[in-house]
Amino acid sequence: DAKTTQPNSMESNEEEPVHLPCNHSTISGTDYIHWYRQLPSQGPEYVIHGLTSNVNNRMASLAIAEDRKSSTLILHRATLRDAAVYYCLQGGSEKLVFGKGTKLTVNP
Amino acid sequence: DADVTQTPRNRITKTGKRIMLECSQTKGHDRMYWYRQDPGLGLRLIYYSFDVKDINKGEISDGYSVSRQAQAKFSLSLESAIPNQTALYFCATSDPSERIPRDTQYFGPGTRLTVL
Predict the structure, then answer these.
(1) Which one of A35, A47, A96 would you mutate to disrupt binding with B, by most B Cβ within 10 Å of its Cβ?
(2) Distance (Å, rounded) from C-alpha A48 to C-alpha A57?
(3) B54: Cα within 13 Å, side-chain hemisphere
(4) What is the pLDDT of residue B100?
(5) Which of A104, B60, B69, B114 is deepest in the core (most CB within 10 A)?
(6) Which residues numbered 13-32 in A keep a CB inside 8 Å of some CB on B?
(7) pLDDT tens for each residue of B5-63
(8) How far is Cα A102 from Cα B46, in angstroms, rounded to an integer?
(9) Does any CB of chain B come closer than 8 Å to the CB of residue A107?
């Protein structure tokens, strides 16, 4: 079973920031938080991951709550190419458990 | 060229037929995975292999078998296909020695299988 909880869908306008939330209340101290996204007609791709501290890379930022029970993926300026299903996962990455994810729609 | 390839990309078959889906990778990763995805659902793990001699069942292995012929090749077989195995199948690889990002999984483009 998926261990994380995400909204089914979100909408954003192009060039605006997007904050995608995730709850992972059962996370253990050694579990990483991973985010993947799946563009239409493609396999999932890695976005970002973190353990305790906030993380930034060229694709996004990851803000992790102090108690680690929730996190937020931040796309600083959404583009039409960011329309995808975003998956938040917790745990050992050897066996990732994908939930249904959040379908992000980006409006022009 | 793509690092993770899957063949075929699309397949239509009939109930009871034996089907093999193949996955090849040029990333040099030891770990390989097979997932299935049903419409509106996330991915579910079928089988995974941490090296050539290691095969493990995932959460939905019934009705499937796998073969790890080499480090670069991991095949998924449906011995007797049934309609509820109609789905999108993804292969993935990972390398636990990667430090940043740690053990990221890299996915193939998927195989769309339809069982009539």
Answers:
(1) A96
(2) 7
(3) 9
(4) 52
(5) A104
(6) 32
(7) 999 999 999 999 999 999 999 999 989 999 999 987 788 999 999 889 999 999 899 99
(8) 23
(9) no
Tokens of A80: 């039409």
**A50-65 mean pLDDT:** 92
Cβ contact B105–A42 (<8 Å):
no
Q: Does A81 touch chain B (CB under 8 A)?
A: no
Write down the pLDDT at residue B40: 76
Say whether A101 and B50 touch across the interface (CB within 8 A).
Answer: no
pLDDT in tens, B60-95: 999 999 999 999 999 999 999 999 999 999 999 988
Q: What would the two tokens of residue A38 be?
A: 């799946």
> Would you call B96 and A94 a contact, using CB atoms and an 8 Å cutoff?
yes
Q: Do A2 and B108 touch (CB under 8 A)?
A: no
Residue-level pLDDT at A98 = 82
A43 CA: distance to closest CA in chain B (Å): 5
Helix, strand, coil percentages, rounded to 5, for chain A? 5, 45, 45
C-alpha–C-alpha distance, residues A86 and A104, integer Å: 7
